[in-house]
């Protein structure tokens, strides 16, 4: 914000510049890129993550097994790499689902207003009365475990955030002069929503989604750790810790590496999210960084 | 003109009631959405057919849903959440036994989060853009990113297994509380530190702070006596909102440290499909969260004279 007035650079360009200047955000992007690439390339570079070897259980890190082996003799590096595929997938699907449900509800609630808005907002209040992780946990209690149910539960916990965010943006955009003008020119509600409201909601939604990806992965890993997420033997990071619970304190490497992977991914999403917020929405940057 | 504080409090309390009612309705409906016979689901797999039949009559499961809900709600209001499907103990007794452990953990963690978070935030803002500031922000980034169960295991490995300073799990002495409380406090501490720093930086740029400085006051006096008092107001709201994350984190922390609280009971109830216990704990957790937010809202207006009770 210290740039002062120097003409009017296109918003996109200056946002990109500000993002670039944030080295931390760049670091986040690099970490994410590396971890994502490693997970995607796992099937090409490594063997079967579920291959057991009872002759070589609980081996500490060595040249043969860089991160050691678990209680069934499975190679931890292979499992951590494959685990990234599951975690990224769950995070992306959950956020996509939350967006698909939250954006239309938020836009319509804010745009239509009145009784409908009131009802939707009471519903959001209700969802927010359940702390996020607890909401996901409760839904798992009802739906049962497994990848699909984890995605649905994590998405349900993220959805109220989007409804509220998009509704707020919609309310302020609805009052703008250019929307009035569009109306005066005879634009229908659908056209106004698609052409004016949605594009203007985009910035906060992108920032929020980057942060929510981290939250989603963290929530899914927490469920996995409790044995209420992705079912073993699927190599999901949280599930790996939950599965090896008996050995966690005797064999440090079993818990350390899958947990470190979660930590790095979530931190990277937070770095990128904070950087994006500074770049796209400078008003928020003081409180966020 | 200000409305009297009493009336505002009353209105806020009344406003929280529909949310609490909604919570009970949502929990009631969720359990009835599970495919299968609700009588069998609530009684549990171990129950005999006679028991299921008795429960069916007792809960009025053959009656229309609204009538069932009214019975359910009347039960909840009188503290009757039914019997655990596993232990056959009243759910309210099970909850009562473990409530203290959870409260002890949650309150200690909140206290740590406020004390450490505010201090770190003040340091970071005071030494803005110096190594102190950057260190606080890096640690805070770690705090918001670290999986709480993994942090717990790492602390256990270091302080219990390696250094033998503290017990690895269980409950009893104050030493047992240290690791779980620190683990659970990490996330909230980071959020409070970020919020304090941001809010204080904003306040330090305001006119009244400049006036205080112009009067020749020392920098620390200005910060602690003038700026911080105002900067802490938004922090209070954050502490209230954090309490939700804290309750979720408590489920994971209690499991990690074998801490006999509500969170651990909830996890074992979910694993055993003990729906009466699940219902009870979820309602208690949601109610705690709603009440804490109500209290922070009320604190907020009593502290900030600028806010009108509207």
Order of helices and strands of chain A: HHHHHHHHHHH
Give me the number of helical elements of chain B: 12
Kindly state the mean pLDDT of chain A as a whole number? 86
Shape call of chain A: elongated
Largest sheet of chain B: none
Structural class of chain B: mainly alpha
Mean pLDDT of chain B: 88
Structural class by helix and strand composition of chain A:
mainly alpha
Percentage of residues in DSSP E strands of chain A:
under 5%
Which value, in Å, is the CA radius of gyration of chain A?
22 Å
Oligomer: heterodimer
Distance between the termini of chain A: 14 Å
Name some characteristics of this structure:
heterodimer, A: 289 residues, mainly alpha, MetI-like fold, 11 helices, disordered C terminus, B: 310 residues
Structure characterization notes:
The complex is a heterodimer of chains A (about 290) and B (about 300). In chain A, helix 2 packs across helix 10 (about 250-280). The longest helix of chain A has about 35 residues, at about 75-110. Chain A has helices spanning about 10-20, 25-45, 75-110, 115-130, 130-145, 145-175, 175-185, 190-225, 235-245, 250-280, 285-289. Chain A has about 290 residues and is mostly helical. Chain A is elongated, with a radius of gyration of 22 Å. Chain A has a domain at about 85-255: MetI-like fold (Orthogonal Bundle), CATH 1.10.3720. Chain B is mostly helical and about 300 residues long. The longest helix of chain B has about 40 residues, at about 220-255. Chain B has twelve helices and no strands. Chain B has helices at about 5-35, 40-45, 50-60, 65-75, 90-125, 130-145, 150-160, 175-205, 205-215, 220-255, 260-270, 275-305. The chains are: A mainly alpha (about 290), B mainly alpha (about 300). At the A-B interface, helix 4, helix 5, helix 8, helix 10 and helix 11 of A face helix 1, helix 6, helix 7, helix 8 and helix 10 of B.
């Amino acid at each position: 914000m210290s740039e002062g007035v120097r003409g009017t650079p296109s918003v996109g360009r200056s946002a990109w510049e500000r993002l670039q200047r944030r080295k931390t955000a760049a670091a986040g992007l690099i970490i994410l890129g590396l971890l994502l690439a490693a997970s995607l390339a796992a099937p090409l570079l490594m063997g079967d993550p579920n291959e057991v070897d009872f002759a070589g259980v609980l081996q500490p890190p060595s040249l043969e097994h860089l991160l050691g082996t678990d209680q069934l003799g499975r190679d931890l590096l292979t499992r951590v790499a494959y685990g990234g595929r599951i975690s990224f997938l769950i995070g992306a699907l959950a956020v996509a689902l939350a967006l698909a449900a939250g954006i239309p509800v938020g836009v319509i609630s804010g745009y239509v207003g009145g009784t409908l808005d009131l009802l939707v907002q009471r519903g959001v209040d209700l969802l927010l009365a359940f702390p996020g992780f607890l909401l996901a946990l409760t839904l798992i209690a009802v739906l049962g475990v497994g990848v699909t149910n984890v995605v649905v539960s994590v998405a349900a916990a993220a959805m109220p955030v989007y409804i509220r965010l998009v509704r707020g943006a919609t309310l302020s955009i609805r009052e703008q002069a250019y929307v009035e003008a569009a109306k005066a020119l005879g634009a229908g509600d659908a056209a106004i929503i698609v052409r004016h409201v949605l594009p203007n909601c985009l910035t906060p939604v992108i920032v929020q989604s980057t942060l929510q990806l981290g939250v989603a992965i963290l929530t899914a890993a927490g469920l996995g750790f409790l044995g209420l997420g992705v079912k073993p033997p699927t190599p999901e990071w949280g599930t790996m810790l939950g599965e090896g619970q008996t050995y966690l304190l005797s064999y440090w490497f079993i818990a350390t590496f899958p947990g470190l992977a979660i930590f790095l991914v979530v931190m990277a999403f937070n770095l990128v999210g904070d950087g994006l917020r500074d770049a796209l929405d400078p008003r928020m940057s003081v409180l966020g960084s | 003109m200000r409305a009297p504080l009493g009336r505002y409090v009353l209105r806020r309390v009344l406003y929280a009631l529909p949310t609490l009612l909604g919570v009970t309705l949502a929990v009631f409906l969720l359990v009835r959405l599970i495919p299968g016979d609700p009588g069998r689901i609530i009684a549990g797999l171990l129950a005999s057919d006679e028991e299921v039949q008795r429960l069916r009559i007792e809960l009025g499961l053959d009656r229309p849903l609204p009538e069932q809900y009214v019975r359910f709600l009347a039960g909840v209001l009188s503290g009757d959440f039914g019997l655990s499907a596993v232990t056959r103990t009243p759910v309210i007794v099970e909850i009562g036994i473990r409530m203290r452990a959870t409260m002890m953990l949650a309150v200690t963690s909140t206290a740590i989060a406020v004390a450490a978070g505010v201090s770190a935030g003040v340091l970071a803002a005071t030494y803005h853009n110096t190594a102190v500031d950057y260190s606080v922000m890096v640690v805070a980034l770690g705090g918001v990113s670290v999986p709480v169960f993994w942090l717990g295991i790492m602390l256990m490995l270091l302080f219990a297994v390696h250094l033998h300073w503290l017990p690895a799990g269980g409950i009893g002495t104050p030493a047992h509380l240290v690791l779980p409380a620190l683990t659970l406090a990490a996330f909230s501490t980071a959020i409070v530190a970020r919020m304090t720093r941001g809010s204080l930086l904003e306040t330090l740029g305001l006119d009244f702070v400049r006036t205080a400085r112009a009067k020749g006051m020392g920098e620390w006096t200005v910060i602690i006596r003038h700026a911080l008092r105002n900067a802490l107001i938004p922090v209070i709201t954050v502490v209230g909102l954090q309490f939700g994350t804290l309750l979720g984190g408590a489920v994971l922390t209690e499991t990690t440290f074998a801490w006999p609280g509500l969170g651990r009971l909830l996890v074992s109830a979910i694993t055993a499909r003990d729906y009466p216990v699940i219902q009870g704990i979820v309602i208690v957790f949601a109610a705690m969260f709603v009440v804490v937010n109500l209290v922070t809202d009320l604190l907020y207006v009593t502290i900030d004279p600028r806010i009108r009770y509207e």
